[in-house]
Amino acid sequence: MVPRGQRRGLFANLAIIAEVTEPHDYTRKRKWMITFVVAVAAAAAPMGSSIILPALGDITVEFNSTPTVVNLSVAMYMLSMSIFPLWWSSFSETLGRRTIYLSSFVLFLIFNILSAVSTNIAMFIVTRLLSGGAAASVQAVGAGTIADVWEVKERGRAMGIFYLGPLCGPLISPILGGVLTQELGWRSSQWALAIFGGALILFILFCLPETLASRKPLIQAAEADVEANLNEKSSNELRPPLGRTTTTQSVAIKSKTYLSVLRRAFLDPLRIILYLRFPAVAICVAYASITFGSLYMLNISVQRTFSGDPYNYSVIIVGLLYIPNSAGYFMASLFGGRWVDNIMHREARKAGRFDERGRLKFIPEDRMKENAWIGALLYPLALIMYGWTARYGVNLAAPMIANFFFGVGSMLIFALVRAVCFL
Hints:
It is a single chain. The chain is mainly α. The protein folds into 3 domains: 215 residues, MFS general substrate transporter like domains (Growth Hormone, Chain: A, Up-down Bundle), CATH 1.20.1250.20; 47 residues, no CATH class; 149 residues, no CATH class. 73% of the residues lie in helices and 0% in strands. It has 19 helices and no strands. Helix 1 runs antiparallel to helix 11 and helix 18 runs antiparallel to helix 19. The longest helix is centred in the C-terminal third of the chain and has 29 residues. The two termini are 28 Å apart.
């Protein structure tokens, strides 16, 4: 256990769960507690993306806009969720997990308050974009927290439980958004997100310790870069033999340090894009992008299809219609993680891969078996079934069944992609 005065992260002394030097040594009870905290926090970003779906029509009317422009509030929110994690994940390696969580949710709280008091559609779209980027910290850093505390052989189940948070968000938020919009107006949904963000700040503050095993402060890392560059050059160029520096030389060294800090903070995170040069990563990212795009096309379609002819359902009923696909996500995440872990163990035993201690050795390819084929076939067929039945106004049960299987199939794809790229 790390002494209270040496714990890392913002307001680390307030955490109920003590920081330890080796996160894998936490008891299973503490590991599941940490996983639960991160899973609840991970629900914030998806909740923000879907809580306004039943209210898009009301927002269009109030701001005297068009459905296409109002839909940008969803699209830009999702765009920020995909881009901001590049920086959140990079910052977490130098600032720590806990600091990133607390900082990002303070921003999430502020931007949701601004969304709730928006006076025009431009302000609403911009503040929505920024709130999505703030909440996206958990999508990037949360998986790192799970990896910090769980060993590889148990990580599949833990990741499945962790992803229940992002999946419960879309399950609950459209219903909540529909009720709030009908009873209190669409702005109440943004106030609800602000309240949730404030509750998460308190939850993280008291229940989540720093789990990153080791980190190097940004300034220290930048100084190390400058020192390495100086050592490569002739020491006589910038520093005299006795180690004394003139004012000009000192300014030059400090300037290089500051430039290195800016490079590490803003440019180095973009290096992750270079992983796309590997075919396996590029294919997985492209596949997940298509699947994720289909998911949000379906979400918009549900609102527009069932609020108009021939269905003409109320806002609350439209919110309830998001339950089937969310139930599919929930079921696939709950049982899929354990199933994929079993497949991984089975393939390792079949290949006879054991280390010197007799433990199984796992590779990402172990997870790409029958679950990949099931997901690849299930989600596009379900999407076709939904489109066909909704197009011709078939009984509501048919498109809802299709949406459930779409949820199962798409979640299998997400689980497969993150297993290949993350493990």
